[in-house]
TrEMBL record:
InterPro entries: Formyl_transferase-like_C_sf, MPG, MPG_sf. The keyword Lipid biosynthesis does not apply. GO terms for molecular function: alkylbase DNA N-glycosylase activity; DNA binding. This is Putative 3-methyladenine DNA glycosylase. It comes from Goodfellowiella coeruleoviolacea. It is an enzyme of class 3 (hydrolase).
Amino acid sequence: MALMSAPRQLTEQELSVDPVDAAKLLLGCVLQADTPQGPVAVRLVEVEAYRGGDDPASHCYRGRTPRNDVMFGPAGRLYVYFVYGMHYCANIVSLTDGVPGAVLLRAGEVITGVDIARARRPSARSTAELAKGPARLTGVLGLDRAHNGINLTDPDSPLRVLAGDPVPAESIKAGPRVGVAVAMDVPWRFWVDGSPAVSTYRRGGKRGTRSG
DNA sequence: ATTCTGATGCCCT
DNA sequence: GGGCATCAGAATG
């Protein structure tokens, strides 16, 4: 019989690290969702690290609120938020013990359930575009507010993070985070070099100072 | 390829 | 009331 060992599920412990380390660890890993239409899985190729406390770009910079509460909890949970009045973005929580941190899932390659994903996002002009961008990624996986706080390291969860083929260190590139107007000196966006699903960089809204 | 702009609602000040 | 961790469509090289 065909023996195909199931991919290993990531553990809460290995995600209980600094978001920068968790971000690099998550590249190449697979987020799998059991949707009503069937399974959809995405190989992560672009992520960003967010810290609490000292990171002005983080939702947790100004303390704990109802929205960011999950980021203060244990690692391996999904933090979903609603943005621009129409999109959802998803993070995987890292660190723990009341220390907030998370990894924004910015883009991935759909490796399972391409037909389902295409049906969900008819505007995509190519397979690579299906999950190219954080809101597109939540779109193909069907993630919304209802999934906030779900435990991705639980084997019985309808949403799981699985280990993938390791990404060679030389294929991991780093740069400033997309769409943030502060902390542009820190290269906390990480992506897999050469993947067609990596989103194009856009700088944050507030331009620097105007003199005069 | 890049630039612009409208859509749209929730969270926080 | 200001400002978003965005996307799609259009116009322009």
